[in-house]
Amino acid sequence: MSGIVESAGTETARGLPGGQEGTARPAGDPGQRQTVRRALLDAALEVFTERGYTDAGLTEIAARSGIPVGSLFQHYGGKRGLYLALWEEFREGQERRTEATLTSERGRGVDDPVALFAAGARAYLEGAWDNRRLGGLLAEDDGPSGFDALRRQWDRAWVRRNARLLQVDERRRAGRVRVSVLTTVIGGAARELADCGDETEAREIVDEVCGILLHLSTPPR
């Protein structure tokens, strides 16, 4: 996995206090299950975006998806499971995107840690723009109980992996702080992109932030 967005181990919905809400393994054809799950996630994203997580209703999500509420519970266990599945989808998509970019850059012979970090950051930010509606939802404070703790754990792992990508000695406080600042810049820019409605402005933001990252990530002489 890339240093930019690698996940915090194998934590999933089960990592939340109380676990996921009684999810049973649904029966049926795998293709049909995938279709049902996609419809439920798309509807959940619409309702969560419009009403927020707290005020979102399962009945409305089921109605918009055209899937019975009972099937919703069978596939996702409830509202928490839907939210966490959306988060996993966003996170894993970002990981695949940045990993593919770093693999391509290394295949071209790029081995400079700063250049690789900047390329991975650009891929991450472009992904944040392409998936801005989902990214904007996940950046809000309105999520399931315990999600903030899970997100902080992932953020800490993100910093550690960025440190490895940049070949920073984590035993040195100055190095840790520098990587933490760089990671915070990427996260903050991703949130700005979620609120940006103009593609030209979004590209300008990505270029500006990548320039800042290149400057900040160059080790002091």
From TrEMBL:
Gene3D superfamilies: Tetracycline Repressor, domain 2. InterPro entries: Homeodomain-like_sf, HTH-type_TetR-like_transc_reg, HTH_TetR. Residues 34-94 form the HTH tetR-type domain. Residues 57-76 bind DNA. Pfam families: TetR_N. GO terms for molecular function: DNA binding. SUPFAM superfamilies: Homeodomain-like (SSF46689). Residues 1-33 are annotated as: Disordered. Transmembrane segments: none annotated. The keyword Signal does not apply. Keywords: DNA-binding, Transcription, Transcription regulation. This is DNA-binding transcriptional repressor AcrR. The lineage of its organism: Bacteria, Bacillati, Actinomycetota, Actinomycetes, Kitasatosporales.
